[in-house]
Each structure stands twice: as structure tokens, then as C-alpha cells.
Amino acid sequence: MTYRRVPDEDAIAQGRSGATKVVRQVKDPVEGRTVNIFTYTAESIDIGINFLRAQYAGIFDALTNVLRQSLIRVEVAFMLTPWPVLVGLAMILAWAYCGTGTVVFVGSSLTFLAVFELWQIAMQTMALVVVATAICIFVGLPVGIWMAKNRIANWVTEPILDVMQTIPSLSYLVPAVAFFGISQPPAVLATVVFAIPPMVKLTALGIRQVPQSTKEAALAFGASERQLLMKVELPMAVPSIMAGLNQTIMLALSMATISAFIGAEGLGAIVTAALGDAQAGKGLLAGIAIALVAMVIDRILKGIRSSLSRI
Predict the structure, then answer these.
(1) Residues 211 and 267 in one domain
(2) What are the residues facing 34 on neighbouring strands?
(3) Phi-psi bin for 36: left (phi > 0), alpha (psi -120 to 50), beta?
(4) pTM metric for this prediction
(5) Domain count, the chain
(6) Which of 88, 62, 81 is CA-nearest to residue 126?
(7) Which structural domain, as residue segments, surrounds residue 37?
(8) In terms of domains, do 68 and 102 share one?
(9) Same-domain check for residues 25 and 40
(10) Angle (CA) 182 188 189, round 5°
(11) Helices then strands, each counted (H, E), the chain
């Protein structure tokens, strides 16, 4: 016969009580009440956020307006262009850089969006992805170059990027809503923060991988540091930069879908609504549409990257 020791419930209860007492030994300096450390820290963060929102309201409002206007312009451009034109352009890109199979896949995938009347909704998602990706390129390229050229910058920035890639995607929505409310602009900012690390890291990697002999040859022929960067390092780093762009767009598309929780429009909003109403059919069709858009972008960008790497 085997005996199993049963834990002493009284001891467990006393342990929990003791732990609770330890946790609650934090006094609120304002109200004088006793709170646990989690609540105290959370309330302190809320106070700091409210202070920043009140202190820099003009900056937050200006940034919100810029992002909103950018989204509107890109979305209008997509909406005013007939869907067969955009499908044709995508197929031309696929034909130029990929194979015949990719051309057929791109055409059929994008036609799926039009047939199921998801085209305009998908263009709302694409507008958010385009704006967020443009910001990632505008910020990520210089930071990546800085990391590649400066050891201290690399030492400081790389752990931050690692943490940014580790934090769950939903966590980015919380500070975005705290500072900007529920709307499209905070969805763009959350998408940028979530999607920018690959752009920065692979830009720095591409520049570091330029052979030292090539750089020395350029300098020997009288190239300045600026010319070395613009005419040697960046062109040779293009395949790595394109890989970073590919990953950034994929992450932006996934985050644009999740951002429906804070007011982002597009395919993610359909998925969120279907989840709340238990409408499996709508959610499945919207999910297929998101997957097809991601696959189309991925195939075309991989073809472009392969072509550039052969140059």
C-alpha cells in the first residue's frame, strides 16, 4: 500500500495569509490607506499617464491629427482605384519578379476579396499597414544605420528591441489607448512599435555584413563616409533590408488585425465582431482574407528580394 502525504490545509492558509500581509505593507502616501504593491504601482502609473496627457495634450492631438489625415489619404487612394486595376498591378509585379504560379495565386487570392465583397474592408486594413510600414522605414532605417556604425548605440538599442519583440502584441494596445484613446491613430502607433524591430535589426545586420575589403577599397579610391554609406554599404545591404521590410509588413498586418480591439477598421473588425457574436462563418471568411493578403505580400516581396540578391 502506498501512502501519500496530504498537505496541511491550516499551514497553507497561514502561508497565504502571511504572504498577503507582506504584500499589503504599502501605504498610499496621499490617502494613507494600505494597498498591495500591484495596486499601488498601477495607480502610480495611471497618475503619471494622466499627468503626461494633460501636460502634452497639444503634442498628442497634433500627432493624432497627422496620423488620421495620413490614413484617410491612403485609404481614399485605395478606395478610388478600381479593384481590377490594383489586382492587375499586383499580378504585373508577380510576373516581373516571381513565377507564373505566383501570378495565378496573386490574381485568384485578390479576386477572392472582391467576390466576397471584402475588398473595401481589406483596403482599410492595407491603409493602416501602409502608413505604419512607412513610419517603420522612416524611423527604422536611420536607427539601424546608427546601430551598425556605433557600438554604444548597438549596446543600448539591441536589448530594447529584444524586449519589444518579446512583449505580447496585445500589451501594446494598452499604452496606445492610455495616451490617444480608442481610434485609428493609436492603432497605427501600436502597430509601428510592434513591427519596427525587424526593420532596425536587419538593416544593421546588412550593413555589418558588407565585406571589410570592399569598404577599404572604396575608401582607398577617395570615397567619403557618406559616399561609402550611400553607394556601397546600403546597396549591398538591400537584400537584408528587404528581409526586414518583409517581416515588418507581416507583423504590421497581424497587429492591424489585433488593433480592431481599440477601434481599428478593416478585416480585424470583422473577426472581432464575429468572435463576440459567435459567428464562425464571418470570422472564417475574414481570417482567410487576412491570410491571403499576407501570403500575396510575402510572395511578391520574396521575389523582389531574390531578384535584388542576384544583381
Answers:
(1) yes
(2) 27
(3) beta
(4) 0.82
(5) 2
(6) 81
(7) 12-55
(8) yes
(9) yes
(10) 90
(11) 15, 2
